[in-house]
Amino acid sequence: MVVRTRIAPSPTGDPHVGTPYMALFNLIFARHHGGKFILRIEDTDRTRSRIEYEESIFKSLQWLGIQWDEGPDIGGPYGPYRQSERTEIYKKHVQKLLDEGKAYKCFATAAELKEMREIAAKTGQRSGYDRRYRNLSPQEIEKRESEGQSYTIRLKVPLTGECEYDDLIKGRITCPWADVDDQILLKSDGFPTYHLANVVDDHLMEITHIIRGDEWISSTPKHVLLYDVFGWERPKIMHMPLLLGADGKKLSKRKNPTSVFYYKESGYLPEAFVNFLTLMGYSMSDDQEIYSLEEIIKNFSSDRIGVSGAFFDVKKLDWINQQYLINSIPENQLWNKIQEWGFSDEKMKRLMPLIHTRIKTFGEFIELCDFLFVNHIPHTHELLCPKNVSPEVSAMMLQCMIWSMDAGENWGRDGFEKASREVAEAFGVNHKKVIMRLLFATITGRHQGPPLFDSVDILGKDRTRARILNAIECLGGISNKKMATLTNQWETKDCRSWLSQD
């Protein structure tokens, strides 16, 4: 048997550090066993998938030296490697399940599903679909179809008994079927859900080992059931430790810089970042902490994979990166590397127009522009809170900045300016005296400097987001309850009530 592993990221946003984390262990496992590592793009979310996000996935993995043997960009014997190009394959397999009575057409409307959730909440029952369309007669199905009612296709999950499967890391895992919904296989638009496409593709691409994060454990019963009803051999399954933030919860972009490009633009070396990511889920013998990708491939053993979550400790990353800087870059090459990172001619050409009329001596250049070259801004309450605005409301304004730029998918100059004016209007505050003062402090660490919007354009999306998140944390954050209220108010663009509470 030839070992075949894969990763299957969705191109719906900036490449999360979890993607190379999983990619590395799939690559390491495949290479250690002389097998193949495959990259597949799961782009069936038609509202959020973007070709530019797919390109970002390629670039982020290539920056880290992670190379796949088959994929959408290089082809292979099991293509196509984009799910959006495989829809007819999924429909054929779903029809097989319908013909065999293992799946059914579900005509539940959005209103019905909402009602089911509300009833479950009131009665304390498990929230989920109540299977009301599971046993319709052929005549009733035909009637509803002739009336033009839309439907999804769901899998008939057993009503009794347990799902059992072996995890190569965690051992035997069991789950009552009563806790598993009749999962949707095909959406009303004819596109597959992740669960169906994932299983069909893994089988047809002859994937032998599924190596993914712990967050997928709850979905695994749905997947192994699909293997069983199709009559296919189950692949081996390994669930890796979750990446955790400092709060002990799943690493989230709401509180942490999670884009791979943030770490690239902050000056980390790719070899060091790879070394760090492998330490998240694995321990080398003799507690070795500095090693190459080739070393871990050669000495890999799945017995040394951790079971509990792994803290994404940036201080540890800093230490590892320092070891690589000291031991892999000679002194006479250090400036060239620093120049390549942050002082390129291209970057300087963009920066010079912003400071040309603002400096009196060359010595003021760094004083004026240091915020563009450092990773940590010394935020304080005094700096971040405009007059008559509390720390909590300042944090809320910054959170709304993130929401505005995410919604417009524009973290550049124009998107930042538009967001600042939207936030000023939503909170009913002066744009210059309140919002600009808050944003200058957040981005630069002071209340004046080069033109802010142009500076943000140079700083870049990922480092800008990190500055805002750091400022929100410095201000004390926002409670979950108030975050929910703020979310609803931001939808109507009316957040003025918070200032009256101050």
Q: What does the secondary structure layout of this molecule look like, with pairings?
A:
Blueprint: E1 4-7, H1 18-32, E2 36-39, H2 51-63, H3 87-99, E3 103-106, H4 110-123, H5 138-146, E4 152-155, E5 162-167, E6 171-176, E7 184-186, H6 194-204, E8 209-213, H7 220-230, E9 236-240, E10 243-244, H8 260-265, H9 270-281, H10 293-299, E11 310-311, H11 314-328, H12 331-342, H13 345-355, H14 364-369, H15 381-384, H16 391-408, H17 413-427, H18 431-444, H19 452-459, H20 461-474, H21 480-492, H22 497-501
Parallel strand pairs: 1-2, 8-9, 10-11
Antiparallel strand pairs: 3-4, 4-7, 5-6
Helix pairs in contact: 1-9, 1-10, 6-7, 9-11, 16-17, 16-20, 17-18, 17-19
GO molecular function: ATP binding; glutamate-tRNA ligase activity; tRNA binding; zinc ion binding
Pfam family, one: Anticodon_2
Function: Catalyzes the attachment of glutamate to tRNA(Glu) in a two-step reaction: glutamate is first activated by ATP to form Glu-AMP and then transferred to the acceptor end of tRNA(Glu).
